[in-house]
Amino acid sequence: MDRFTSRMISYNEQQNIDRHSLRAIIMNGTSFRTVNNHFFIEFIKKLNPSYVLPGRKKLAREVLTEEMVYVENKNESLLVEAAHLTLNIDGWSDRCRRSLHEYNVITDSQAILAQMSTTINITSKICAILTDNPHKKQKMREIFISKPGNQHIIGSRWFAHAINLIAGDVSKHVYALNILNKITVVTTFANRSHMFKAKLKEEAQRIKIKKEALHTIATTKWSNVSDCLHSFILLRAPLEVLVAVHKSIASTKMIRFINNRSFFYDIENFAYYLHPKYRGSGMLTSGRSAVYCFLAEYSKKIGNNLTTTKN
Fold it and tell me: What is the distance of C-alpha 118 from the center of its chain?
């Protein structure tokens, strides 16, 4: 440690540390004024007195500009190396009813780029355009895919989004709502009570269950309903032990629900219907291979040899 704090930092190291400081500040949503804070400066000096912390203005202007250039150059290289690209588009309207569009590009190496190149023609590399909105999909077909030279591009909706909508409809059924109301009562209490949460974790570890906490449900993301139900199924034994042995740390409603013979039976039934819509339809290796095969066959039909089959 003494060697590190007493070592002189080179100019290249100074720039590299500045870049990482910028990333840490931006990704944590911290104000640039942090670097002018006396206690923060003192902390950095304790690490290495030879490092000169950049000021707020330098960080927000010079260092940020250099980082943007670095990211853009990296994106350029990824686009050049990529053989196939997928364009993801989402759209909405502002208060003035003006159309707004957000997009990113996914390369065949799974890298996601939030900004496309303005100097490289990537149209020939795009093999599919994905969106979760059918109207936007139709619009993209009219203004982009229908143009000569773009016939090889497939316009499709987000499969995961469609599944999410289906799950939302399933979860609105009276039978499903009754189950969701009960498990919400249990998860709310279990996650708010530190004692119950600790006991549940302890009991799960005792009987060697990897799952140690109950999942909560987010109403805007129905895909996690399946995860929540699955957590109840895995933690059934610890939950039944807790309400039987440690009744004092559980609520009356929770005890009544868990001791009800149909509670876990209903959860398993509900999970059965959601299971194929999520876990069974995930894009595993075999699924990705099937998609690539389809793209290759489709490409052959329209006379385009850019899309190749992947294993």
Answer: 27
Query: 């269950």: which residue's tokens?
Result: 209
Residues 6+ apart with CB under 8 A from 113: 75, 78, 79, 104, 105, 106, 107
Residues paired with 112 in a beta bridge:
106
CA–CA distance, 304 with 308 (Å, rounded to integer): 10
Residue 307 has pLDDT above 90, yes or no: no
Reduced to 3 states (helix: H, G, I; strand: E, B; else coil), residue 107 is: strand
Distance CA 25, CA 35 (A): 9
* DSSP states along 114-154: SS--SSS--GGGEEEEEES-HHHHHHHIIIIITSTT-TTPE
Euclidean distance between the first and the last CA atom of the chain, given in angstroms as a whole number: 48
Spatial separation of the C-alpha atoms in residues 265 and 182, rounded to whole Å: 13
160/281 Cα distance (integer angstroms): 9
* Number of neighbours of residue 2 by Cβ within 10 angstroms: 6
- Whole-model pTM above 0.70? no
Distances (CA, A) of 179 to 41, 170, 236, 238, 263: 54, 12, 15, 19, 8
Q: pLDDT tens digit string along 224-241? A: 788 888 889 999 999 999
- 3-state DSSP assignment of residue 284: coil
* Residue 285 vs residues 95, 140, 206, 292, 301: alpha-carbon distances, Å: 43, 29, 35, 11, 25
State the chain's mean pLDDT as an integer: 77
Q: How far from chain centre, in Å, is Cα 229?
A: 20
Residue 225 tokens read as 């309903």
Paired tokens of 94: 């502002």
- Sequence-separated (6 or more) residues with CB below 8 Å from residue 240: 258, 259
